[in-house]
Design brief:
Elements lengths: L1 H15 L8 H7 L1 H7 L18 H13 L5 H7 L4 H12 L9
Helix pairs in contact: 2-6, 4-5, 4-6
Length: about 110
Amino acid sequence: MKSTLFVSAVAALIVTLPAVAAGNAEAGKAKSGTCMACHGADGVSSVSSFPKLAGQNRDYLYHSLKAYKSGKRKNPIMAGQVQTLTDADMQDLSLYYSQQKGLYLKY
């Protein structure tokens, strides 16, 4: 009885955990050409109005792309860019940019 209860509890926990984006960094790099136009090579933008993607948290990037695609996050430029991205594309791009070296300032 205890083992059945334990297995049920573990199964319930696994089902309720949020899915973590996996991704393929090499595929993300191959798909990043369009992103570079605004966000710069390797995700380091030189224009202050376009955020730097390099070194950002993978889950943050992934959920941001999903929010732009669903319309929960509003930006006309990004809304147009993400419409053709699949979930796998968003995972790949997020992983790629999260692995790039970001700009860290010394204070």
